[in-house]
Amino acid sequence: MSEIIKKAQDFATTEHQRIHHVRKYTNQPYQTHLQAVAKLVASVTDDEQMIAAAWLHDTVEDTPATLGDIENAFGVQIAELVEELTDVSKPSDGNRATRKEIDRQHLATASRRAKTIKLADLIHNCADIVKNDKKFAVIFIAEMQALLEILKDGDAGLLKRAKKLLVKSSEKLGIDSSIQRHIEPVDSSIINLPGFTDINFKDKYLQLFSARDIAGSLLSFDSDTSVSKANNAFMYYKQSVASIRINGRVQGYIEQTSLKGEVCGESMRHYTVDQVIKGVDSLSDVIHVLTRHDFCFVSIYGEVTAVITREDINKPQVRMWLFGLVTMIETALTQLIEKVFPEDSWKSVLSVGRLEKTEMIYNERKRRNLHCKLIDCLQFSDKAGILITDKASLTQMGFETSKQAKKVIKELESLRNHLAHSQDIVAHDWAQIARLVNRLSEK
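Above: the chain sequence. Below: its structure as tokens.
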């Protein structure tokens, strides 16, 4: 194994392990998928950059690492391959079918190298999904069929293998692979509970704040501005990024850490298609962009004039918004418990120690003449733990196993606690924030 491939393997494995990322159906460490994709790519090419990118292909979408981190660690060419393989659609773009078509068009413009990696990814995912999730497999097969139409420039051997797998999987599922099917939206909300099944309410809440509410002003330089002058401005205004103007129009941006040469234009980078959003776009879109990029640029009246970084997610508006999301989930848990376990019958499934703790809190509130019910004194994790004991409730919450539910609830509780105690949620909970917002934004 070459040094660059070993480095990519270690980097990807570490990033996915940091968030305890596992395969959905088997609970195997996520790197088993990455290894399988890299092995497929290595079977058709000895291109070290392609094999490295195969290891890294999900890192930007699924972990706190950004494309900037990939570029810093592996260089521009591998970062470009990963970027080509990274979805560009945003939650606000529409339902799953609409977003998948946007991502398909993005992939259609990708290089042959990236398309080869995507073929390997599809082959491994298809086998896994068809084996473990027949319902979703029907949707995945339709999406795979559409993707194969624009992956014809990829490796011929992998393309042939993918097509053969598509036909075999379609036959196994009892569907006709020769017919292009409509792709139905998938309900992938993190928790399918009262309050979140109301699409209008959910959409209104997700739109409560917009990008312009938290965006910061963006320095701007002409392309012929000297690097020394730009550095002085960066230091004075305590900023690290600025837009670059050519003939009076903003054409790209520079980062202070990447400045080189005599004038700013020599270090200019172009905005990617998924890096710029409108000022009226939602915080969901902001977080979606920041899962991929170090900077989310904001366009006002058609020109980039502001910027948002992950640090801005610690601002009061975002913290309040996120706390509201978690609180609504907790309220929905309470409502479901009252429905499934009427008249406090949930007490029978709660441990003696946790019940005593709940009753102690309840009695203290009564002593203070504070009106409440016993169920209101349950801790967040206790509420989830009660519902996990009921299989129907587990399914309604959108979980397949109690282990999966416990993991998600633990993450939500961590986020809530860090929000309540004014701790840095970006450092502690970025992966949880991204998953929560992206899943709740699904249509």
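The beta strands are 216-217, 219-222, 241-246, 249-255, 276-278, 296-300, 303-308.
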